[in-house]
Amino acid sequence: MAKIIDDTSRTFDEFLLLPGLSEKVHVPSNVSLKTPLARGPVGSPRRSLNIPLVSAAMQSVSGSELSIALARKGGAGFIFCSQGIESQVAMVEQVKEHKAGFVVSDTNLKPSDPLRQAVALRKATGHSTIAITHDGTGHGTFAGLLMSDDFWEFKDDLDTPIERYYRPLSSLTWAPAGVSLTEATELLWKNKIKCLPVLEEDGRLSSLVFRKDYFDHHLFPDELTDDKKRLVVGAAVNTHDYRERVSALVEAGVDMLCFDSSDGYSAWQREGIEYTKAQCGDSVIVGGGNVVSREGFRYLADAGCDFIKVGIGGGSICITRGQKGIGRGQASAVFEVAAARDEYAKETGIYVPICSDGGLSNDTHIIIALALGADFVMMGKYFAMTAESPTPTIRHRGSLYKPYWGEGSARARNWQRYGTGGSMKFEEGVDAFVPFSGPLSDKVEITTAKLKSTMCNIGALSLAEFQNKAQLTLVSPMTFVEGGTSGVEQLDRHSIDEERA
Ligand code: IMP
After folding, report:
1. pLDDT (0 to 100) of residue 230
2. Is the CB of 101 under 6 A from ligand 1?
3. Which residue from 102, 157, 290, 365 could staple onto 12, CB 3.0 to 4.6 Å apart?
4. Is residue 422 over pLDDT 70?
5. Is the Cβ atom of 379 under 6 angstroms away from ligand 1?
6. pLDDT at 172
């Protein structure tokens, strides 16, 4: 007979944090958001993140550009595995090859392409400088640059080939591969130029250095790098082709692998983790999931998992609960698994970090997830909305959006994640749009500022202290209403000024 457990599935919105004593030392500038990323003796994790945010392994979220932007802020991206091994490896390589300031060009065309294509490409990538190479790729033989003011979109004939407009190599200042960032910056400054192409000996484009990145550089004090000063990046793997995929990703320099499954409490996942740990030892971090119970956590921790992801059915694009009747309220799942992690640490002396994955719709949810015990959080929608996600920005009725689809949607066709045996008979995710929210860096700044501020209210300077001190209360539906504004109208300021005049 089935058993009904003594538990109510709770969500993050049902909790509020009570303030603790804030001493004078509790100011945001003293707060550290460093958090354990991989298992290790209690108190000394093998690896850490500088901020507790990672991006979901999804086609519409974690490409190389987003992973670079997030690692520069101190988190990390997980490149999706619902693609061929070669293209996933290429994305990992792009992140590992990224040297702060040296950008692999992702906006490229051939001299014979029409201006029309330049207009479309700029819209799609959001980048105005286009590298012109003989084969139209980011590492092709370099021909020149097409800059924002080289043609007028609404005046010039857009069927004209780019070769009539671009600035050829002979007219440009460039630098040979191997140039240091200081030397490149010096060339940008002395020649008062916006962009410096860096070329290989045989004339192929290596990278571009932009003036604006020089000004940006001081904005990234938390950059997450490996021991060779390369950005840290993760990649998802599935339980079907991991024998080939893992070795190719490790060869490319990946730092973390994560088994990507909607239900990780399975013998297939255990086998995959044991195989990967045996192949890589401690040189690569191996995560698994997703689980929602103490038993699920134990199973994967015993298999040797370095971190364990928590969450089934809470994702913003997820319809698993409706389709299959399986899952758990994300707050309950995180709280139970965090308790299991602490119990495991007490018994074994080994701390296995946990990641709350999916269903974090706003900054408050992130804060509550961390307070309830998550070491870090994985998000899809949050990052899909940013300029750096791999999808184009779309205008609809005057507002900007980005496409965002689930890995269980027909569009992603990621049957490996859902273990449906090579075909998808039904969907577990939807294909949708999310509002465009601007650059990742700005968004992460706001989230981390709110998190630090709440930690100060609780009287905590580290995430571990935050979790130890956090006291939460369940909220009634009416308390939730009380938390919104009441009896005030937020009118549009412009219309008020017009009335006065
Ligand atoms: P979000 O941050 O709420 O958008 O959720 C992202 C998370 O949802 C991912 O990290 C996955 O764990 C999960 N996910 C991704 N695609 C699907 C899907 O199609 N169905 C169910 N869950 C999904």
Report:
1. 87
2. no
3. 365
4. no
5. yes
6. 96
Q: How far apart are CA 139 and CA 358, in angstroms?
A: 36
276-280: long-range pairs with CB below 8 Å, 24+: 276/237, 276/242, 276/246, 277/304, 279/246, 279/247, 279/250, 280/246, 280/250
Confidence class of residue 182 from pLDDT cuts 50, 70 and 90?
A: confident
User: How many whole angstroms from its chain centre is CA 139?
Assistant: 25
Model confidence pLDDT, tens digit, residues 107-161: 999 999 999 999 999 888 888 899 999 999 999 999 999 998 898 989 999 999 9
> What phi, psi does 168 have (nearest 5°)?
-70, 160
Q: What average pLDDT does range 165-194 have in this prediction?
A: 92
Q: Is 318 a catalytic residue?
A: yes
Check the CA dihedral 147-152-158-162 and report its sign: negative
79, 259, 262, 430: which to mutate for ligand 1, most atoms within 8 A of CB?
Answer: 262
DSSP code string of 316-365: TTB-HHHHHS----HHHHHHHHHHHHHHHHHHHSEE--EEEES---SHHH
Q: Find the mean pLDDT for residues 208-237.
A: 85
146 lines ligand 1 (CB under 6 A): no
**Which of the following is catalytic: 305, 318, 355, 456?**
318
How much is the CA Rg of the chain, to the nearest whole Å?
A: 24
Sign of CA dihedral 350, 351, 353, 354: positive
- Write the residue with the smallest CA distance to atom 7 of ligand 1: 358
Q: Is the beta carbon of 320 within 6 A of some atom in ligand 1?
A: yes
**Annotation says 280 is catalytic:** no
